[in-house]
Amino acid sequence: MKKVVLYCRVSKSEGQDITRQVNELREVVDNNNWILIDTYIDEGYSRTTTTRPELDRMMKDSFSRKFEMVLTLELSRLGSNLKHMIETVETLKSRNIHLWIKNQQIDTSSISGMMFFSILTSISNYERELISERVKSGLENCKRKGIKLGRPSNLSKDKEDEIKELYSQKMGLNKISQKVNVGVRLIRKVLEDYPKNYPHNGTNNITVSV
C-alpha cells in the first residue's frame, strides 16, 4: 500500500480551522486504503511566508523518502509564490514523490497527472526567460539614456594623483587602498600606464595588471 503524508496550511487572516483540511484529506486516504505516515500542519503562516517549520520538516523527510505521496487541499498551500511552489514541486519530483491535490483533482502518479509536472516546468522556464528579457531590455534602455550602471566610483583626479605619488614612494597597493579608500582593482587601472610615466625601482616587485 502507498505511504502518504498530509500537508495543511492556514493563515490567521483566513480565519479558518485547520481541522477541515485535515479531515478532508484523511477521508481521501481512507477511501484509497493508503497508509498515513505523518501530517504536517503550518497554522498561522500566511501564503507569502517562504519559511514554514512543518513544510521544512516535510521536505527534510522527503530526502529519505519516508513517504511516496504528498496530499494537500490546494496547490497554493505548498508555495508562497509561483517560484517557491514550482521549486517545492520539482524537489519532490526529483525524489520520486508524487502529489495529490484535492481541489484541482491532480494526481501526478497517474498518466494524465504527469502532464502537470511538464506544465509547471514550462511555466518556470517561461518565467525565467521573461525576467531575463526584462533585465536585458532595462540595461539597454539605460545605455541609450547614457545612464552609468554599477556602483558609483569615489575616484577623483586628486585621488589618482595621490595614488601615483604613494606608489612612487614604494607603498604597496593594499596600503594605498586603505589610505585613499579606493579598491585595489581600481588602483591597478589608475596605475595601468605607470611604468611608462613613473618608473618604479622599489623592491616591492608589484606587477600592475587590469
Helix/strand layout:
Blueprint lengths: L2 E8 L7 H14 L3 E9 L9 H11 L5 E4 L9 H13 L3 E4 L4 E2 L6 H31 L12 H12 L4 H8 L3 H7 L3 H4 L13
Helix pairs in contact: 3-4, 5-6
In terms of quaternary structure, the protein is: single chain
Could you name the CATH topology of the largest domain?
Rossmann fold
Radius of gyration: 29 Å
Q: How many separate helices?
A: 8
Count of distinct strands: 5
What is the helical fraction, as a range of percent?
40-55%
CATH superfamily grouping of the largest domain: Resolvase, N-terminal catalytic domain
Description:
This protein has 210 residues and is α/β, with parallel strands linked by helices. The protein has two domains: 3-125, 3-Layer(aba) Sandwich (Rossmann fold); 151-210, Arc Repressor Mutant, subunit A. It has helices spanning 18-31, 53-63, 82-94, 114-144, 157-168, 173-180, 184-190, 194-197; strands spanning 3-10, 35-43, 69-72, 98-101, 106-107. A five-stranded mixed sheet has the order 2-1-3-4-5, sandwiched between helices. A hairpin with a 4-residue loop joins strand 4 and strand 5 (106-107). Helix 5 (157-168) packs antiparallel against helix 6 (173-180). The longest helix is centred in the middle third of the chain and has 31 residues, at 114-144. The relative contact order is 0.08. Residues 197-210 have low confidence and may be disordered.
Descriptive keywords:
210 residues; alpha/beta; Rossmann fold; Arc Repressor Mutant, subunit A; 5-stranded mixed beta sheet; 5 strands; elongated; disordered C terminus
